[in-house]
Amino acid sequence: QKSSPGQPEFYQAVEEVLESLEPLFAKEKQYLEHNIIERIIEPERQIMFRVAWIDDQGKVQVNKGYRIEFNSAIGPYKGGLRFHPSVSSGIIKFLGFEQIFKNSLTGLAIGGGKGGSDFDPKGKSNNEIMRFCQSFMNELYRHIGPTTDVPAGDIGVGAREIGYMFGQYKRLTGRYEGVFTGKKIPWGGSLARTEATGYGTVYFAQNMLTTSGQALEGKTCVVSGAGNVAIYTIEKLYQNCALPVTCSDSRGFIYHKSGINLETLKQLKETESACLSKYAEIHTDAVYTPVSSYPAGRNAVWSVPCELAFPCATQNELNQADARELLKNGCILVAEGANMPSTPEAVEEFLNAKIMYAPGKAANAGGVATSQLEMAQNASMIQWSFDEVDVRLKTIMKNIYVTASETANEFGQPHNLVLGANIAGFRKVADAMIDQGVV
Ligand code: NDP
């Protein structure tokens, strides 16, 4: 930790991965001989830059920009851009590190990367967002390309922001190419990319349930978040006759016992960018609880009784006390749509209780997998139908589940998908690094 202080999320992610790799290192010596651990935790390249832009009052504002190109052993760097005031070099580093193993698990040829800015899109006008994105791209464009590094969206970055950045890239380079994924359909996007992370998370849960002889139908589900991942998790749960009863944002959460109204949620979050309190004004049988009323040290959304839980907001949003509450209320499955939403202590609770637990790097890999399908469509200049992409997504999620659980079995811990996902993801990248020599 001495060489990079102040990056707690990065150390948390590294610790989790290295701990679960111990059985692999005990069995297969080549990884230690080639010093893969020290090599894999060091990013190949980190770019930090100034993003100066002019607000609507004519004042110059300055934010920090980041892109981390973590590992390219199995393909070009791939990973989203996050715009959120909490973004720091440690957050981007943890996300980039996780991305290496997630991308490897998809079975596709994509390396790990991530980026973003501490810019807060909340309350900004369209023009301010555009000027910020253009300024961000004025530096980033020289580091990315369709066969080198292909960014996408994440928290605070959706199709609008991708559009502004793609437009500026095109203007600076004079090239129309698949340098971003998450684009809108008329200018190179893939059908089903918007839905892919949420849908994929539910497909993953479905695979776990089927193995244990159960189904989604009739199950009460607690979902956190109200953004891209949460919305399409809720949509797919409804399509499978499950009942999602909650959603949340950074200001509070909604409990709607008869089921979250998806149309209202989409209208509030995708069109109006409104606060969730407005949901309870529209649906008077729903209850809105603001963060200020949460019990100390708790995220109150996890107190709602459920059989299935889908954390889809952000990192460390579910701690040990939350996990205990979920277990006490009879939760049998947790599938993570967000990246690292459960703290290490919460994960331990789930593993000790032997419930079905899917870590984010396996359960939410459907988004990046579909991004790779978008790259494939761009490269071949064709567009697949929604169903074609969705069928491929389903197959990829099934393969990830099978790979993670077979690997967990191989190491004698059939329940432990954290171990299974980490070992399977790591092995492919580490083998490629050995094949490619010391670079
Ligand atoms: P969005 O920006 O669309 O939505 C994020 C949601 O989480 C919003 O409801 C937001 O509330 C809430 N949120 C964000 N930060 C916090 C916080 N600090 N405390 C409480 N709530 C918070 O992002 P996505 O849905 O795209 O991403 C959600 C998670 O899924 C992230 O962890 C992301 O890395 C992960 N992910 C996303 C993928 C994708 O394809 N989009 C792919 C794989 C993983 P508010 O609106 O109030 O800020």
TrEMBL record:
Keyword presence, Chaperone: no
Alphabetical UniProt keywords: Oxidoreductase
Domain Glutamate/phenylalanine/leucine/valine/L-tryptophan dehydrogenase C-terminal: 190-437
Pfam entry (one): ELFV_dehydrog_N
GO molecular function: glutamate dehydrogenase (NADP+) activity
InterPro entries: Aminoacid_DH-like_N_sf, Glu/Leu/Phe/Val/Trp_DH, Glu/Leu/Phe/Val/Trp_DH_C, Glu/Leu/Phe/Val/Trp_DH_dimer, Glu/Leu/Phe/Val_DH_AS, Glu_DH, Glu_Leu_Phe_Val_DH, NAD(P)-bd_dom_sf
Top-level taxon of origin: Bacteria
Family in the record: Belongs to the Glu/Leu/Phe/Val dehydrogenases family.
Known partners and oligomeric status: Homohexamer.
Protein name in UniProt: Glutamate dehydrogenase
Gene name of the encoded protein: gdhA
